[in-house]
Amino acid sequence: MITDVGLIAVLLSFAASVYSIAAAVHGARNKREDWVTSARNAALVIAPLLTLAALLIIYSNLTNNYRLEYTAHVSSRSTPTVLKITALWGGQNGSLLFWSWLMSVFVAGVMLRKWDKNRDLMPYVIAVAEITQGFFIALVVLFANPFAKLWQAPTGEIVGAVFGASGLFATLNSIGMSGIAATLFAPAGSLPFTPADGQGLAPLLRHPGMIAHPPFLYLGFVGFTIPFAFAMAALITGKTNDAWIRTTRRWTLMAWLFLGIGLLLGARWAYDVLGWGGYWGWDAVENAALMPWISGTAFLHSVMIQEKRGMFKTWNMFLIILTFAQVILGTFITRTGIISSVHSFARSSIGVPFLAFTAIMLVGSVGLLLARLDDLKGENKLDSLLSREAAFMAQNMLFIIINLAVAIGTYFPIFSELLTNNKITVGAPYYQSVVGPLLVPLVLLMGIAPLISWRAASAQALGKNALTIPGPVTLAALVLLFVTGTRNPFALLGLGLVIYAGVIIVIEYVRGVRARHKAIGESWLLALWNLVGRNRRRYGGYLVHVSIVLMGVGIVGTHFYQQETQQALAVGQSLKIGDYQATFRQLELVPSGQADKQIVSARVDVQHGGQTWTMRPYQEIYGNGERMTPPALWGNMQQDFYLLLGGYESDGSLATFKVFINPLVNWLWLGGIMFIVGTLVAAWPDMREERQAVRAGRRAPSTVQA
Amino acid sequence: MQKASGKRQAAGRMGKWAMALVAGVLVGLLIVGAAAAQGGKVTDDQVNAVAKQLNCPVCENVPLDVCETQACAQWRDLIRQKLATGDKPEQIIAYFRATYGDRVLQSPPREGFTGLIWSLPFVGLIAGLAILVVVLRRMAAQPKAEAEVEVEAKTDAVADEYRKRLERELKELDK
Q: What is the pTM of this model?
């Protein structure tokens, strides 16, 4: 079968990654450039091999090859072509192959870039990256092989196995390697089996949002292994100056951006598909993706101190190790479902290898870090407690505490079940009441920190900048909000903080533009363009802060002022919520174009502020009995009217509707777009900056000999 | 004497008011209870307000009020019945907890081992603040490192020419 070619490609890529680790280390230790080049080539070859493997899975889905266990599991004859392609990451085995493939592409990107800046680091960058790569390929081969075929065991049971019936199945089982046995072999006497049709993707995963969400998350996850590999290489070689940080700055930013986009897409998908009126459920899987983003955010900020002042080197190492560990744990949690129950962990065959790999990487990297502590001493002392450095540290502390709080909520149920045999669930209320208050000082710092100068700031100057304009403007905004009916003190606090931070950023922009306009005589627009273009990190960073401000407005609005109601209406009856009136007109069956899917749609006329329009919330009913209730949406920057068809009488006389009014929720999505723009501005290559970095690199003292 | 009797009178008046208030509340409760007992309509919103605090019995981490499964529909019906017979939301939640264990609660109990979940973040915050203060103070007290001079030169080299000029101009503008 042609998919066997994919299997061979995966096996070859595993061999290549093992070889490349050995060759890289050998080359580095014996100063043999040719071995290092060979390691590089081996690492490079993995990308095309895994590309071929991934394409063959897609090919198998497209050609309805249900002999292949994976295709039979995630695809079916009625699956639309697009979903047959994206089903590559629709199930566990395929998504691990997809993860490995993305990683191989990232590594190839690193291999192909110019090496002259960090020739000493590269061998170990290859080794560390390939250890991770090799682990994922090994998982794909031994525990979650998407190239397994279906067999019918003598007992009649249908099983998936790569190599088919073999006595080795019993042998491996008898020595306790049941996971590997089940992946590779079927019980002796099994016969090939091809089902007539596949099961197809779960309904929830058929949504277009699911096409883009996982790849972005994985891109983010995979991306963080690059700065991690460079950090470990710096520790191994003892070149602990900031070369690794400068080299990986853009990789880190892109990983952070991708992970952020993945989180945003996930939120939007939940909002559009899950039909519970919200966008973030604090589910363990969501948290698993959020945590590396939080520690990554702390890392992005604190590396600036090392670049500028040569301080906090140990801390930066710690942060990248933490982020990488959370990436691996995040992948692990999303794939094994350990949080939902310790038992599902035991059932999943990839649980143990994942935990072992995480432990080995953690022990190894922390061990390296401790061994190099002396080299990581700061080059400068802290000049003042009122300085940008100190502000960054306070901000980092807050990020880590937030990360910790989310981790406690996410992992506590495991310990509770293991230690006291008491299963508990940690729902949104915990996160809201613990994380919410921690955001207050964080947003305040986001506002003030850009005004605090490096090394030492004068309290007087800071007070003047922080209060003169931003103070009255924020106060005026708050008064206006209060007068127009915003009375919840916590909502006012939240809005006040984000407005304050926003005003300061605007002032920063205005000051910069005005200075250029006056000093150089550029037109206002050109001055803005050049201001941002020549200081991309700074003004791109500010744009990201603006995006946080916008998202903050949306979060405060939906958190404090969401309204909801649920009512059963007969045809012609109305419900009222806020200043909306919704009248149920008719229930109708809509052709879905898919055999195993029915669509029941309701026609509802909605009146608001003298306007009337029609909305059609619907339910999708699948052959297996599963239902989806996506909302009908009508909204603007003020609010969303979020209408769901909850249930109905089969004769169409009565239907239950659930309605949410989500104030300001669209600010959140606007903030999401701004987040992407700001990060891209900050990461956009700047030739002048590159040249300076090269010059600085040449001048920088090499702190430690290898 | 007069003063004292005045006080007594005042106390008597207050007592009457209190009695009236209690009676009023009791009557109010009776009316509400009677209405409920008669199967007075329990709205979906009232059911959802209770269901929000509970979890779906089959899906993980999904609040009961938004879950579409049959099991959840049955639980919501049970909540509706209990509300109709006059049970308070707290009683209903206590019933579910007693029957199915802590896992049905959206918000884990604040006592016993699970209480740790609520206190640990604050322990973390206090510890974090303490460490931050200690580290920053120690770093501030550290003698100037030898490498500093070199690093300063480096920092200057990296600093954007334009940015320096901008800062200068900004300072002038601020004067």
A: 0.87
